[in-house]
Design goal:
By secondary structure, this protein is of the alpha/beta class. It folds into two domains: about 170 residues, 3-Layer(aba) Sandwich (Rossmann fold), CATH 3.40.50.620; about 90 residues, Pantoate-beta-alanine ligase, C-terminal domain (Pantoate--beta-alanine Ligase, Chain: A,domain 2). It has ten helices and nine strands. The protein has a six-stranded parallel β-sheet, sandwiched between helices. A three-stranded antiparallel β-sheet has the order 7-8-9, with helices on one face. Strand 8 and strand 9 form a beta hairpin. Helix 1 packs across helix 7 and helix 7 packs across helix 8. The chain starts with a strand and ends with a strand.
Length: about 280
């Protein structure tokens, strides 16, 4: 596995791999890697011969300084995970190289970013779209892999690639969960034992709603309220629960296969998000 630290070095490496006939996949991460990231790498390897993983804790997408300061950093473990997973190259740029003092550019997607995480975390998506544009520009991948857990992020980035004619195929890998259903997240390490127990109510609510949908329920209210009832006893600060169209992220009054049930809430100061895609 080759470790690179500058955009120019990554660009040169990517160009060399493409000239040798290899397909390139990019897996952008902020580190603190876990089983969910391993699954993204595995999906990438199914699509491309040369897999690049990036690790960069992107300050621009944190709207609360404390969240940035407390984000887990486990670089030695992350490097070991990438090596053992068969990653081809690991891109680890510094903050100074990504955002020098003269940096004055941002990339924004309107519409899809106005609600949900965009409304709750001002500036978050501008940070995401800016850094992903830089990562894609440097690595020039054929494919980029993102997790379903951050569904709104995937929708926003898919729109970014389409609108700017960036020739990257977007692939969404399914959410990986603990045995009890909790979606894997780098933030989970900040949950104490009691918070961890209560957090499971999120997936319990989502999958109960899915079972209702599969039994024939289609009314949005009848699918959302049971989630709220299951979660509200354990999570007092629920930000949103909504069923939306997967492309537009607009609310739907009647759910159909392919629509997405989104959840976000804060548990003991830790923001947790999850979702399910309705299927028959």
């Amino acid at each position: 596995m080759k470790i690179v630290e500058t955009a120019r070095e990554l660009s040169d490496l990517s160009r060399s791999m493409r000239q040798s006939g290899q397909k390139i996949a990019l897996v952008p991460t902020m580190g603190a890697l876990h089983g969910g990231h391993r699954s993204l790498i595995h999906v990438a390897q199914q699509h491309a011969e040369f897999v690049i993983v990036s690790i960069f804790v992107n300050r621009l997408q944190f709207n609360i300084e404390e969240d940035f300061a407390t984000y887990p950093v486990t670089l030695e473990d992350d490097i070991a995970i990438c090596r053992s997973s068969g990653v081809s190259a690991l891109y680890m740029p510094s903050s100074e190289s990504m955002y020098p003092e003269s940096f004055a550019t941002s990339v924004e997607v309107s519409g899809l970013t106005a609600r949900f995480e965009g409304a709750s975390r001002p500036g978050h998506f501008s940070g995401v779209t800016t850094v992903v544009t830089k990562l894609v520009t440097a690595s020039a991948p054929d494919i980029a892999i993102f997790g379903q857990k951050d569904f709104q992020q995937f929708a926003v980035l898919r729109k970014l690639m389409t609108d700017l004619d960036i020739p990257v195929d977007m692939v969404m890998a399914p959410t990986i969960r603990e045995e009890d259903g909790l979606a894997l997240s780098s933030r989970n390490v900040r949950l104490n034992k009691d918070s961890r127990r209560r957090a499971v109510s999120i997936s319990q609510g989502l999958f109960h709603s899915l079972s209702l949908f599969q039994s024939g329920v289609r009314d949005t209210h009848e699918l959302v309220e049971p989630v709220r009832q299951i979660c509200s006893d354990e999570i007092k600060n629920i930000d949103y629960i909504a069923i939306v169209d997967a492309q537009t992220l607009e609310d739907v009054s009647e759910a159909h296969a392919g629509d997405v049930l989104l959840f976000a809430g804060t548990l003991d100061g830790i923001r947790l998000i999850d979702n399910i895609i309705f299927c028959a």
